Amino acid sequence: MSAPRILWRAFQEVRLKGYAYIWANLAFVALCLPVFTAPAALSALFRVSYEAQTSPSTADLALFWQNFKANIGRGVVWGVAHGVFAFINFSNLISYANADDPLWSALRFVWIGSAFVWFGVVLYTWPLYYSMAQPNLWISTRNALVMVLQNPLSTLMILIVLGMISVLSTLLVATWLLLTFGIIAAVGTAAVLWHVGQPDIIPELTEG
Question: Which of 29, 53, 109, 154 has the smallest C-beta neighbourhood within 10 Å, fewest atoms?
Answer without folding.
Answer: 109
